[in-house]
Amino acid sequence: YSEEEKTEDYLFKIVLIGDSAVGKSNLLARFARDEFYPNSKSTIGVEFQTQKMEINGKEIKAQIWDTAGQERFRAVTSAYYRGAVGALVVYDISRRPTFDSIGRWLNELHTHSDMNVVTILVGNKCDLKDGREVGTAEGKALAEAQGLFFIETSALDSSNVTNAFQTVVKEIYNILS
Ligand code: GDP
Ligand code: MG
């Protein structure tokens, strides 16, 4: 066998879910392209973006799926979830209703994908300090109760964005290897 043939290839499908305008598309844009759109419309969403990462010297491709805004109509299809091994469930720390929706998003995730899908709860827009409506401790408590990882991010100032995706990819890798 050549070195090439011995190298295992990993492709992990990861989905972004959460209410409209919580920053899902911008988290992906920041992570994959280091870009940010101050006034993004839901139409900027790509179907998915593949990002190469290295974990323990192994090359991993994270195929990250973004909605094209259909979450506004409660019409994220089962095809979106099919085969997902990871999920980022996102809310906006400056809008409590988006946090109240998390339970529903988790139900939908577990209806359409494997129960063991590695999931991180993401409180985005943590740069909006004055507008905060959901405390860090509340996010943490919900994540603990549901057995999820937890992180607060800002797609605007880049805080923890790479960390959020890496946490999921590393855990999937650990489970599979
Ligand atoms: P999506 O509908 O969940 O994909 O949300 P978008 O990524 O389209 O973002 C919705 C709006 O929130 C846009 O105007 C973004 O510029 C803004 N936004 C996204 N992430 C952040 C963030 O971390 N901080 C702030 N202040 N605004 C953000
Ligand atoms: Mg979007």
UniProtKB/TrEMBL annotation:
It is found in: Endomembrane system. Its main location: membrane. Keywords: GTP-binding, Lipoprotein, Membrane, Nucleotide-binding, Prenylation. It is a lipid-anchor. It comes from the Eukaryota. GO terms for cellular component: endomembrane system. GO terms for molecular function: GTP binding; GTPase activity. Belongs to the small GTPase superfamily. Rab family. This is Ras-related protein RABA5a-like isoform X1. It comes from Cucurbita maxima. The lineage of its organism: Eukaryota, Viridiplantae, Streptophyta, Embryophyta, Tracheophyta. The chain holds residues 4 to 180 of 256 of the full protein.
